[in-house]
Amino acid sequence: MENYSHPYYLSNIALKIDYEIDLAAEKLLIAEKANHKIAVEIKSFLKTSFVHEFHSVFGQYLVYQESLWRIEPDRELFLAIPSTVATRLEKHPFLQQLISQYRIKIMVFNSENNTITIWKA
Asked: Which residue has the higher pLDDT, 32 or 49?
């Protein structure tokens, strides 16, 4: 597994897009899981408004997912969130519906021991 402390760039000249999957202290991991190429965008949801942060993360994920699909169609994008964020998401049925409807792949991790607890693909 490669750990990128610098942004992972997506660029497609035909589509005139340039994106970097990485913001602030968050990280992107490029890895293979059971022979599947994956990219993992780690988000901590540290802003004051949980719903506002979700809006930002949701929009970024959709743009990154579409861009990644066009450039590296064999690589799947996962959104990694701490278990505390997953617990908060469970209290918002509408946000859960959006995650399901747009097929957002989620990886839940325990931030205390840095272990992955749930894969939702």
From this structure: 49
